[in-house]
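Priority: medium. Attachment 1 of 2:
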């Protein structure tokens, strides 16, 4: 294995043209998105086809059993250029920018006026569950009740075994969207998965 750089972290600052895919040689074990022009438009892959959407102030890393990644692969699915700042590391990345702020930060806390729950649904291996669009919905909350398998979530036209946001096992996924959402149990999984759905509404 090649020797690691003496510098534990590194920054990637770039602009992707609409529809552009870029492969950036960079070794590491984790990344953190400091800036992206629009959330959920640029997809990232670590040594593989870009499948995870970038969200500002969020990141991801490799499983301890996986080897270091050798390249960061980015794809801009938007119709406009996207500016991106990523930090990569061999360790855990933490954003401490808020600790540098003196004074108060205006905050608006919204409480939902109503909730809607549905019966738990079992999604077969390779199967999907689509939650219809609802213009009055504020949040969609999806719970992956599996103890070992992941789910994928995205729009019906693009979600697949390798595309869409991951919902890890025993995790909750919260999406602020009124659009239709499709949840997929990848065909590479070994078992059907039961999901719990909660929707919140704000007048």
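Attachment 2 of 2:
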């Amino acid at each position: 294995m090649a020797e690691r750089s003496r510098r534990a972290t590194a920054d990637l600052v770039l602009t992707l043209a609409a529809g552009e895919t870029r492969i950036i040689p960079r070794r590491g074990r984790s990344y953190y998105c400091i800036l992206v022009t629009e959330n959920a438009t640029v997809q990232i892959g670590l040594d593989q086809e870009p499948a995870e959407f970038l969200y500002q102030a969020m990141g991801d890393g490799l499983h301890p059993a996986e080897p270091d990644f050798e390249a960061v692969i980015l794809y801009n699915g938007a119709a406009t250029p996207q500016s991106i700042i990523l930090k990569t590391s061999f360790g855990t990345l933490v954003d401490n920018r808020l600790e540098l702020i003196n004074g108060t930060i205006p905050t608006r806390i919204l409480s939902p006026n109503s909730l809607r729950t549905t019966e738990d649904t079992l999604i077969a291996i390779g199967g999907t569950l689509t939650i219809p669009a609802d213009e009055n919905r504020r949040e969609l909350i999806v719970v992956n009740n599996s103890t070992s398998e992941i789910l994928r979530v995205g729009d019906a036209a693009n979600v697949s075994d390798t595309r869409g946001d991951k919902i890890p096992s025993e995790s909750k996924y919260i999406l602020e969207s009124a659009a239709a959402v499709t949840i997929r149990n990848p065909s590479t999984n070994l078992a059907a998965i039961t999901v719990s759905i909660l929707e919140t509404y704000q007048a």
